[in-house]
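Cross-check.
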Amino acid sequence: MLSSEQKRMYAESIKNFTYAFRKGRCLLCDGDSIRSHTISKSNYLKLIGEGGSVLQWRQNWWAKESDDLMGLGPVVINEASTFPGFCAEHDGRLFESIDTLQFSARRDQLFLQAFRAHVRELHCKRAQLSMVPEPSFIAMMHGLENPESYTHSDFALLQQEAMKAGLRDTILHHNNLESIRISDDFARMQHCVVTLESESGPFIASAGSFFPEILPDGTILQNFMDLSTPQETLHFSLLPHVTGSYAVMSFLDVESFSPRQLIEAVNNYHRAADLICWMAFAYLENTFLRPSWWNGLGASMKHAIRHAFDHNASLMSPESHTVDSMPPEFITGMRIQNIFWL
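Predicted model, tokenized:
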């Protein structure tokens, strides 16, 4: 049984954690921010919404097993995929071409889709690092004696250094994106757009970025153990259309080796459409599903998705689920209609 003081500390910790991720200032003017959609509500989320809601991953604060750390739950479309990144004026003006116009793979649309999702990644990395608890606080939460005597373990210190390195690399990447935004030099970003079709229609939307680590055949692209070397970034989005999704994969001209290698390997994979969808589950928590699609899946498919996401969400997990670990039971019914590069 938790004491009243422990319950208070747990509640305070959850409140502070939630506040850190939900509060922010406009990146461009430092004004009051609104909840910006990283995936357009009108153009994309409504296509997979049912009853005004979609499914999103949610953290279970009271999970006792790693497989229960994250779960899917409904969220209204107005709140889905939002973060406090921009004020109303800048959000509306800067992202008008992806919020009010249909997707046409214009270079400015592709850049802005990557940029807005990137700013969310930057916000989340900063918030996550700001919420690393002190050992004494953790000890008090667990009711341990002499809480002031506890220190971070070597593993915890390594985790913090890795988080700092990830934030450092994201800031370096952001500086390049900002120079493109200011100059409108959109040709500095390269994009691969894959049109995916499905007989069951659109069922997934996703947006974010990650550091490509490995190819489907197991070849290592970047050494994550070398914290001194900045990692290259791949921007990834799944944007629903009436009969499927557009997969948009983008990278900078100065960070092209690993992203290009991964994109080409994925597109040449014998189950490329499934692997593209698998990337969303394996790498991005900013992923949303049509409720009836999820409810209609078999147990083995649900287990594969949950297992991949749970273990990638847990820093303590000894397992890794990446592009080289897609299980045979992961079958989406998607197929590739065409692939083009810009």
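Strands lie at 34-37, 53-59, 70-76, 82-86, 189-198, 204-210, 234-241, 244-252, 287-289, 334-341. The mean pLDDT is 89. Passed to J.P. for a second look.
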